[in-house]
Automatic annotation (TrEMBL):
UniProt record, GO biological process: carotenoid metabolic process
Protein source organism: Aegilops tauschii subsp. strangulata
Protein name according to UniProt: Amine oxidase domain-containing protein
Family matches, as InterPro entries: CrtISO-like, FAD/NAD-bd_sf
Record-annotated membrane-spanning stretches: none
Length: 235
């Protein structure tokens, strides 16, 4: 969000609330995502839906490609894939700077090489024979996420600079600048499809009320917005 306000509002005009947000949150790195369609036989019986892989030691946790997140939705709902197959969604943190300035051919080759290395690690750690079981593979780099998700540098979103302060420390839809609203995963209630959809719906209602397309209670609005602003100061 702070990149957007930096473009719309001059630094000296930025509300104190937004300055505090920038102090408390930092832009998260981007990520590499891999979607696989695999033969069901490669997964042992009783395989869990979610997995987290961190080899070696904890020092690799925040390094690019250091840890791997894996979700297998077809474990919970087999109808999501053709019979006899599973879907694997794999992702790991990655910086967009590693992907900038590459010729198209080199870029595609790098996606293939990095994805295959991630798959190899999962094969060694969880599912022997994974590579040979693949029937469909799609790879998205940080540049992919920047292009199709309209994210600055393909970022995953905001993350606390220090100890998390809770969702109430995040911006709500309104700001102290008349006519400027906030919406998306930089706002309450945070990241995730459901959370972002909720943010969008609530922002739409807020705008509609402010331009008299929906009923509102000025007294309640003033009190509620005051409480919300106070809560943000606690962060």
């Amino acid at each position: 969000m702070h990149e957007l306000t930096g473009k719309l509002v001059k630094a000296e005009e930025l509300p104190e609330e937004e300055k505090n947000f920038q102090k408390n949150y930092v832009k998260a790195p981007s990520f590499l995502s891999i979607h696989l369609g695999v033969k069901a036989s490669v997964l042992p019986a009783g395989t869990d839906c979610h997995h987290f892989v961190l080899e070696d030691d904890w020092s690799n946790l925040e390094k690019p490609y250091g840890s791997i997140f894996l979700s297998i939705p077809t474990v919970l709902d087999p109808s999501l894939a053709p019979e006899g197959h599973h879907i694997l969604h794999i992702f790991t943190t990655a910086g967009i700077e590693d992907w900038e300035g590459l010729p198209r051919k080199d870029y595609e080759q790098k996606k293939e090489l990095v994805a295959n290395e991630i798959i190899r690690r999962l094969e060694n750690k969880l599912f022997p024979g994974l590579q040979d079981s693949i029937v469909l593979k799609e790879v998205g780099s940080p540049k992919t996420h920047r292009r199709f998700l309209a994210r600055n540098d393909g970022t995953y979103g905001p993350m606390p600079r220090g100890k998390p302060k809770g969702l109430l420390a995040m911006p709500f839809n309104t700001t102290s600048i008349d006519g400027l609203y906030c919406v998306g995963d930089s706002c309450f209630p945070g990241q995730g499809v459901i959370a972002v959809a909720f943010s969008g719906v609530m922002c739409a209602h807020r705008v509609a009320a402010d331009i008299d397309l929906e009923q509102r209670s000025p007294i309640l609005d003033t009190g509620l917005l005051g409480v919300l602003r106070w809560l943000r100061t606690l962060a």
